[in-house]
């Protein structure tokens, strides 16, 4: 009985503290959302230290990783970033099974964002991305499904891409040749107009914190890169707010229940 009471009190206090922390984190995130809503999208040349919202076209760096951009492996588009996901649909459970996932060196390298007023360096490490797929190719590698039933053949670009993969991965696709295969490619080209929200800080060794050429935009409390503007960023952040509040309420409820039960046994 005594150990049950002690465990109930300890568990209740722990759950209550977790709940309070989650609600506090949700409140802080909500405050950040309100600050985001009140921060106007500015011209790059007028960017200053602090939270910024910018819109422009990306460009690769003059040197270093990603300085020459990349070529997307499926559609052969010149880009500054890409990802490819591929797999097949399992017909019995009607679910998609991933086989391959990769991107531009598995990272999003730094790049410039530029508009008619100037350019600024972007470090997208840790950013939340909202870039819809550019190509969603589906079909059958053999052109036939189970039992030899004729099916739509997979796009030639996807077939050519699969042939460039490592032998082990190619073998996995060969085993799935009678199932519907999907290849999804997403990329950002230099012609795309994108929205970036993040924290502008002075570059290391910059002579002054004034001027976009002396700044780098990176993740502070949050960072968002999208081709859909501020609305998508706010929607994503509000989803996190709701999640924190729901978890906070749940843990607080569990904590109060645990403490009440323990004190009831104590009485």
Tell me what you see in this structure.
The chain is an alpha+beta fold and 267 residues long. Helices cover 34% and strands 29% of the residues. The chain has helices spanning 2-37, 156-163, 167-175, 230-266; strands at residues 50-59, 70-71, 78-79, 81-90, 95-103, 111-115, 118-122, 128-130, 135-140, 180-188, 194-202, 215-218, 224-226. Helix 1 packs antiparallel against helix 4 (230-266).
Walk me through the topology:
Blueprint: H1 2-37, E1 50-59, E2 70-71, E3 78-79, E4 81-90, E5 95-103, E6 111-115, E7 118-122, E8 128-130, E9 135-140, H2 156-163, H3 167-175, E10 180-188, E11 194-202, E12 215-218, E13 224-226, H4 230-266
Parallel strand pairs: 7-12, 8-13
Antiparallel strand pairs: 1-6, 1-11, 2-3, 4-5, 4-10, 6-7, 9-10, 11-12, 11-13
Helix pairs in contact: 1-4
């Amino acid at each position: 009985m005594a150990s049950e009471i002690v465990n109930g009190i300890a568990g209740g206090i722990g759950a209550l503290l977790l709940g309070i922390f989650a609600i506090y984190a949700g409140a802080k995130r909500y405050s950040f959302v309100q600050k985001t809503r009140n921060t106007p999208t500015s011209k790059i040349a007028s960017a200053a230290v602090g939270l910024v919202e910018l819109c422009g076209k990306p460009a690769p760096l003059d040197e270093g990783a990603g300085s020459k951009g990349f070529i997307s492996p499926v559609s052969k588009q010149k880009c500054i970033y890409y990802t490819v996901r591929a797999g097949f649909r399992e017909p019995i459970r009607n679910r998609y099974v991933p086989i391959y996932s990769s991107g531009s060196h598995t990272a999003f390298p730094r790049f410039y964002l530029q508009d008619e007023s100037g350019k600024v360096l972007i470090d997208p490490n840790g950013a939340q991305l909202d870039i819809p797929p550019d190509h969603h190719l589906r079909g059958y590698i053999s052109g036939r499904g189970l039992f030899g039933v004729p099916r739509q053949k997979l796009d030639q670009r996807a077939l050519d891409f699969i042939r460039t993969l490592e032998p082990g991965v190619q073998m996995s696709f060969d085993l799935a040749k009678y199932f519907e295969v999907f290849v999804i490619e997403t990329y950002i080209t230099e012609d795309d107009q994108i929205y970036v929200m993040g924290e502008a800080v002075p570059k290391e060794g910059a002579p002054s914190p004034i001027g976009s050429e002396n700044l780098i935009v990176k993740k502070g409390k949050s960072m968002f890169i999208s081709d859909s503007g501020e609305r998508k960023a706010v929607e994503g952040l509000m989803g996190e707010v709701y999640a924190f509040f729901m978890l906070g309420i749940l843990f607080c409820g569990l904590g109060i229940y645990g403490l009440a039960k323990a004190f009831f046994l104590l009485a």
